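User:
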Amino acid sequence: FEGCSHNTTQNQVGATRRLRPSTRRLRRTVMASADPFSAVRARLAEHGQAHLLSPPPPAAAAEDYLRQLRGLDLPRLRRMFESSTSAQPPAGDITPFEDITCVEELPAGGAEAHSEGLRLIAEGKVAALLLAGGSGTRLGSAAPKGCYDIGMPSHKSLFQYHAERLLGARRLAAQHSGRRLEEVHLPLLVMTSEANDGETRAFFAERDRFGLPPDQLHFFTQGMLPAFDERGRILRSSASQLALSPNGNGGVYLSLQEAGLLEEMSRRGVTSVFQAPHPYPAPSGIVRVLPLCFLSDSLSLSLS
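Assistant: Predicted structure:
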């Protein structure tokens, strides 16, 4: 401290001493944050998934990959894998459904059930659900399967066939109940996938939703799950990306809940959802959406 007064030197030394605790805290913080993967690494090792950090991701993608790993519910994923690969039957008694109506049990012509189906639609108690997460690869098309032209003279897509049948059901329900068409609400819930969501939404938008009211058309995305190898180890598609696959048609109910659509439908008074098979095992242009004689019977799914 040459050239400084005695008081100045003492003040500087005092300031240095006062800074030392902060410096130590900063040093501890730096040391703790030096390895942002430490906590995740321990958690992965606990569940037999330590390989997900070997090799580590590139530095530029580390934060995104860390977010993927933190989002894994490892105990649940382990249970799902073990359950799906177990040769043991599920615990508990398995009994057939009791509330099943066979076609043969319907009254001749189904006139009464047909009328009841129109009443349910007119009162806004019904929604249609379309599973449309696949692509048309088996049909020679890379587009979403619902966009496929099945070769009819009209050259309509599968999406258009379904939409127009819903519009027809609304018109019939309005006529049957004496309501104006605008008063009849028949929502269409379309489950897409991460791969085709944008293209599906654009397909509907470019065609003015085939006449469907905007407040009665809802899109939501199918959930994804990590892919496993035969030993139950989660796979990576790259050093910074987990390998993901659609969680199957059964995941539709969880996806509806996560998208807030179950709550939305319940708020609107919808009590039944008709799930149209789309388009498995074959393009389902021949499958009738909302067969009215069934709506009051076995194809109704309580939202509760």
